[in-house]
Amino acid sequence: MQLAAGYVRVKVEDEIFTVEKRMLIEGSEYFRALFESGMRECSQEEIGLQQLPASGFTVTMRVLMGERPILDSDEITDAIECAAFLQVKPLTEHLIHIISSKNCIVMFQTAAVYGLFDLLHVSALFIRDVYSNVREDLSFLPEDQLDYIESLSPSTFVAVATHSPSAQYLDDRSRTICYLDEAENSWRTLTSLPVKASTSLAGIAVVDNNIYIVGGVDGLSKQIVKLNFCYNTERNSWSEFPSLQHLRHNLTLTGQGGCLYAIGGMYKNMVLATVEKYHVASNTWSFAAHLPRPGEGIACTQAMGRIFVCLWFPMDTTDIYEYKTQRDEWLLVTTLKRQQSYGHCMVAHMDNLYVIRNGPADDFLRCFIDCFNLTRQQWMSLSGYYFNSKGALFTATIRGDKVFTVNRMLTLIYDIQKDKWKPAKEGAGFPRSGSMHTFLLRLPKHSVSLTRHVARIFYGHGSGRHWQEQSLLLIPNYH
Question: Where do the domains of the chain lie?
Fold first, then answer.
């Protein structure tokens, strides 16, 4: 059969794949170099890749075509081999986004075998976060790999309460960002807020392990704060960065791919649909696609490397939209209808979105949780209801398979199970009043010195496989 223009056949093991050349060139460094080399293969209708697994190439093609499949262990192993050999960055990114407690060790081991170091590092970070749950399964790892995992900082639960800018002549020692010392079950001060910073109705997000604070208001007059602040975790220092082009408060802030997104909010009693994008590298703001409709205090989360928001439509409709960063557009994903109820918080775990909503008739002491599975495109209500005393579930943060919620009385940690969140542990309450922002940070291990490890990297394919010793300078990395 004659090929359509712009297509090529790729033979992997005994299977033939008919693939668009453009997609291969855009997604794979291997194919880009091949087709631009001027070699004989450039004009051939069929290219052989006999040393790669067909199942891994199938996953590669699915990801390049825009799918986000959940993979079993065998598929992960084959996909990593293809990602490494063909240098498929989108596949590596997808693998990073689907790391879980069930597959993190397989990811780490296989990434080490094939020298896929971005995936190896993120897998190691995930293992560090769930270390107590997987410690026994790590016993067979080589000592240098265990040392690498243990050299990393685990994620720490961090909180900041609502604060207006400080009157400079007052010493307000409560204006701090704090972290939970789980070993001592106490909250400790990480840093004090800059005098002019506001966390009241501000947007707060973490990008590359740095805290960003955007907007907010000053006092009861709700005068918008123009200054934005960034806390560098490793240097323990604050800096300012440029103001939004369209000032606002009660905005939602999220970060991805070295960028911040300031979503919706309020300006002079007007609810906004505008979205602005801050490019960290260039230190500039630009406008992005408007929201489908205006919103303030919008619930937002990220799952599998994708950004999702809840937009409430009175009295019973919660629409979930995804922001497509590459295409700069909003796409309606699903709609949840519940009488007299709206989603006031949304968090993600693997391919599940959890929408936490108040009970009927604005009963804020009872919360219900609905789960939307992105892969199956199905809703499920978690069994029972959840007590929301003094706002504990107005903010929730997920680390590994656990949900951290906090109020003034206690920190309540849940285990995420198939059909419910099971209370697992209680910790100290956060010693501040009012609403709060919570997030995760990796706190620097200043006492960790630079160590040089020699990793034996297994690479190559088929009969060409062999061992190579590679010297790795392991500089503590907290991102």
Answer: 7-151, 155-442
CATH superfamily of 155-442: Kelch-type beta propeller (2.120.10.80)
Q: Which residue has the higher pLDDT, 388 or 141?
A: 141
Report d(CA 180, CA 76) in Å as an integer: 35
Sign of torsion over alpha carbons 404, 405, 406, 410: negative
Sheet strands (E) in 195-351:
202-207, 210-215, 217-218, 223-224, 228-232, 237-241, 252-256, 259-263, 266-267, 270-271, 275-279, 284-288, 299-303, 306-313, 317-324, 329-337, 343-349
The C-alpha atoms of residue 477 and residue 134 are separated, in whole angstroms, by: 21
Tens digits of per-residue pLDDT, 50-61? 889 999 999 999
H-only helix segments in 65-163: 73-86, 89-97, 104-114, 117-129, 131-134, 143-151
Which CATH superfamily, name and number, covers 7-151? Potassium Channel Kv1.1; Chain A (3.30.710.10)
| Whole-structure pTM value | 0.89
The predicted pLDDT at position 433 comes to: 80
**Antiparallel, parallel or unpaired: β 46-48 and 7-12:** parallel
The answer to whether 332 and 326 have CB atoms below 8 angstroms apart is: no
The set of residues, in sequence order, having a beta carbon less than 8 Å from that of 28 and lying 6+ positions away, is 60, 64, 86, 87, 88
Please give the angle made by the CA atoms of 118, 260 and 242, to the nearest 5 degrees: 125
Token pair of 256 as six digits? 């991805």
pLDDT per residue as tens digits for the range 429-462: 998 887 889 999 999 975 333 333 334 433 333 3
